[in-house]
């Protein structure tokens, strides 16, 4: 069995995870209630969401579907940052586990359909490779960018991600 698909994703996966870790390390836990707008997530919830993204990679690779709110059970519990060090540790452990699953994933696994449901209703059904690239990695990058805006608004020096940041020059 070939694992060319997973091997082609690994360099980008690693780079984006390491860039995300750099951002998480900068989160000021004392500013957790900060919101740039009343409809926005709090800084603590947004940072928690970014920190939990590797778990989505694990779920995508380890199972073929996820029901966010299966009938008769409790709703998915979102991760909320309370301590920056704990969030980074949570992120690191789940990144490691997701990476192990990605490294071992065969092309057959990567092309198998993964389905996201809410109370049994299908929200999306795509090949695992598309879910990993779009729903996991792009989703993480999107929220990481939001988190960078929150950090800038709180005068936190930003790390360089694809080169030095203005704060590092």
What tags apply to this protein structure?
mainly alpha; Four Helix Bundle (Hemerythrin (Met), subunit A); three-stranded mixed sheet; 5 helices; 9% strand; globular
Q: How are the SSEs placed, and which strands pair?
A:
Blueprint: H1 4-24, H2 43-62, E1 65-67, H3 84-104, H4 107-111, E2 113-118, E3 121-127, H5 128-153
Parallel strand pairs: 1-2
Antiparallel strand pairs: 2-3
Describe this structure in words.
This protein is mainly alpha-helical. The protein has a single domain, classed as dinb family like domain (Four Helix Bundle (Hemerythrin (Met), subunit A)), CATH 1.20.120.450. The chain is built from 5 helices and 3 strands. It has helices spanning 4-24, 43-62, 84-104, 107-111, 128-153, and strands at residues 65-67, 113-118, 121-127. It has a 3-stranded mixed beta sheet with strand order 1-2-3. β2 (113-118) and β3 (121-127) form a beta hairpin.
- Biggest β-sheet: strands ordered side by side in the sheet: 1-2-3
What do we call the CATH homologous superfamily? Answer: dinb family like domain
User: CATH topology, what is it called?
Assistant: Four Helix Bundle (Hemerythrin (Met), subunit A)
How far apart the termini lie comes to 47 Å
C-alpha Rg, in Å?
17 Å
Quickly count the helices. Answer: 5
* Major sheet size, sense and barrel closure: 3 strands, mixed
Average pLDDT over all residues: 95
CATH second-level architecture: Up-down Bundle
CATH class placement: Mainly Alpha
> How helix-rich are the residues, as a percent range?
55-70%
Count of the separate structural domains = 1
Question: What is the tally of beta strands?
Answer: 3
Strand content: 5-15%
Helix and strand composition category: mainly alpha
